[in-house]
Amino acid sequence: MTRRIRSSLTALACATLLGVAPTQALASEQGLAKVGSEFFDLLVGRPTLFMATVAGTVYYVISLPITAAGGQSDEAWDRFVKEPSDKLTMPLGG
User: Fold this and answer.
1) Model confidence over 37-47: pLDDT tens digits?
2) How many CB atoms are located within 10 Å of the residue 59 CB?
3) The whole model's pTM is what?
4) Which of 44, 47, 13 is nearest to 5 (CA)?
């Protein structure tokens, strides 16, 4: 009798786990995708944005006499320095 109860409880536990597993798998895949995008952003995106900010600053300084003469130094600052630095300070994975 105890064998029969034990096997019934085991079968019930297995059926319950099989019914719950797909929803947990979907939830963990979405969480894993978010963690993966944050990791990729930290590993590749942020160093690239930092280099773009530094290069944009250098380019802005070099082009400053020309853009100042044309009255477009503010636009050059926004384009080469402000945009990359704003993206650099955004939350990870965003």
Assistant:
1) 888 888 888 89
2) 15
3) 0.59
4) 13
